[in-house]
Amino acid sequence: MAIGIGRRETGQTVDHDIRVLLPEDIPSLRLGWQHRHDAEDIERLLGVYPGRSVWLPDTREFVLLGPWRHRPEIAGVMEVAAVRDAETLIGQAVRLADERGAELVLMTEMDERRRPAFYERMGFVELEEVITYETAQAARLPTNTYPLTFIQVAGHDTNLLEAVLQLDHLAFPWLWWNASAELAAYSFMPGVAIFAGMLDGQVVTYAGVTTYPGWGHLDRIAVHPEYQGRGLGRTTLGFALGTLTVRGARRIGLSTQGDNARSQRMYEHVGFKRSRSNDYRLYGHWLRDPEARS
After folding, report:
1. Does 138 lie in the same domain as 212?
2. Residues 139, 144, 145, 150, CA torsion sign
3. Structural domain for 13, as ranges
4. What is the pLDDT of residues 116-163, one digit of tens each?
5. Are 100 and 12 found together in one domain?
6. Helix (H) / strand (E) containing 291
7. Among residues 123, 152, 170, which one ends one of the domains?
8. Does residue 78 lie within any of the structural domains?
9. Each residue of 173-218: pLDDT tens digit?
10. Which has fewest Cβ within 10 Å: 119, 145, 148, 235?
């Protein structure tokens, strides 16, 4: 049974029942090659994150919400398959996410690239700019001048994964934390390798990389806050880039936060150049006090 959650005022009359999207509604959606999600994707999403996605039966427009990076407290707008009623549908999806306890609703330009005014009208603010870098050859690879030992983290090694996760949460702001499920899923992805930098039996750095045919990506690099400023980040970067090179990467890409000047200096020092065409922004609608998540 479809669940009605609101009606849209056009100024003359009331039309378009907005409904919570249920699995039995999927055959009624107008899906095609231009959509990022097929029927199986949507059914799976509704199973893990029910009661947040919405649709308009009259027009078959819809908005999909899912847990961003396996984090249910952050509702990610996964797809906006709507033109005329996009803002209305997103507004209702935000309300449902609020009712179900989400702290933040997130839209990224990787999924929905629209004018800033579009986000502003719905109460979304710019949270981050993610900037990207690329190099065909890391000209000045840092060497291991610090007694770090690197251990590859196997996906089934729950103790070492948990230590990496704890470091992750110490090193990155709340928005960028890996969830336990996210890190576990990442560890089993094809081409992915996670390395823990060990010092005196403690995980003090880590790096995650992905190797593709002919190129590689530095997915993540982190240093324990108590060990920052000692060159461990440069050492870990050198190890990660060397690993990608040995595995056949002739071109390497990465991304970092636009306000992280320290990481930008480090990447540029070893030969990375900006790849501005791949930059993107994150917009968020806070449902709980953001000051608690600074």
Report:
1. yes
2. positive
3. 3-123
4. 899 999 999 999 999 999 987 655 565 555 679 999 999 889 999 999
5. yes
6. none
7. 123
8. yes
9. 999 999 999 999 999 999 999 999 999 999 999 999 999 999 999 9
10. 145
Neighbours of 12 (CB within 10 A): 6
- The encoded tokens of residue 77 equal 């707008």
Confidence tier at 270 by pLDDT (50, 70, 90): confident
Where are the alpha helices (H) located in the chain, listed in sequence order?
Answer: 39-48, 86-99, 116-121, 158-171, 180-187, 232-246, 261-269
Check: CB of residue 240 under 8 Å from CB of residue 209: yes
Residue 153's nearest CA partner among 190, 122, 182, 195 is 195
Whole-prediction pTM value? 0.87
Q: What's the full length of the chain, in residues?
A: 294
Using only the alpha carbons of the chain, give its radius of gyration: 22
Structure tokens at 40: 């199986």
* Cα of 253 vs its chain's centroid, Å: 16
Name the one residue in this structure whose structure tokens are 């930098």.
Answer: 197
What is the token pair recorded at 181?
A: 């499920």
CA 69 to chain centre: 5
Q: For the chain, how many structural domains are there in total?
A: 2
Task: Give a yes or no: residue 153 inside a domain.
Answer: yes
Please state, in angstroms and as integers, the Cα–Cα distance from residue 80 to each residue in 54, 87, 138, 200, 257, following that order. 10, 9, 39, 49, 25
Pick 255 or 136 by higher pLDDT.
Answer: 255
Which distant-in-sequence residues (6+ apart) come within 8 Å of 122 by Cβ?
A: 87, 90, 91, 94, 285
Q: Which residue has 């000692």 as its token pair?
A: 230
Q: Looking at the domain assignment, is residue 178 inside a domain?
A: yes
Distance CA 268, CA 262 (A): 10
